[in-house]
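Q: Convert this sequence to structure tokens.
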Amino acid sequence: MSDSVKPTRPRNAASLVVHRQGDQGIEVLMGQRHAKARFKPGIYVFPGGMLETADARVQPHSPLDPTIHAKLAVGSSANRGNALALAAIRETFEECGLMVGQPGDIGDNALPSWQAFRQRGLAPPLGVLRYLGRAITPSVQPIRFHARFFAVAAEHVSGVAQDSGELGDIQWVPLSAVRDLAVMPVTLLMLDALLRQLEQADSRAAFLSFQRGRRQILWV
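A:
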């Protein structure tokens, strides 16, 4: 990229890794991006998407673990950290119909997805989420994201997973079979973080970035 061309500023985004214990060990919920998707068509991903202004207006059932905020690159703003986790939960509902919620009132919100939570009397319990890590898309790409990845056990999720206009072929995938799908390296990295946390009690999160085109991974 020419020095005179400024890289696109990454947009804040969040994803949610829903996991459960299956017959073949740990399974995670994944879906395939549609062929006409602007970003990574045909790739299998976790539900997720961009942060919306309305996410910061939601009153959660419980906040994120305070130790997570320092890892999210949001300064000292607990509200912004909560908003990113809420974005992951909202996108999971929009893309596959599942809700992460406990009885509660999220307050007034104009976004239809959050209205659905309020109509059902559910508020997201952010305290049950794990934080897996974050990743920043390389500066040479025209579409860039600063994505945060959270995880939640399926016991905290309600509804029936179903395909949507954004994700198809939604399925529970054993970790041993994820590499058989078309996935991005960041997906494997976040699953590595999940395994470390579940099996080794290693609470560190991954941070993937690119310096002068070279991939860098930190565990923090």
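The chain has a mean pLDDT of 94.
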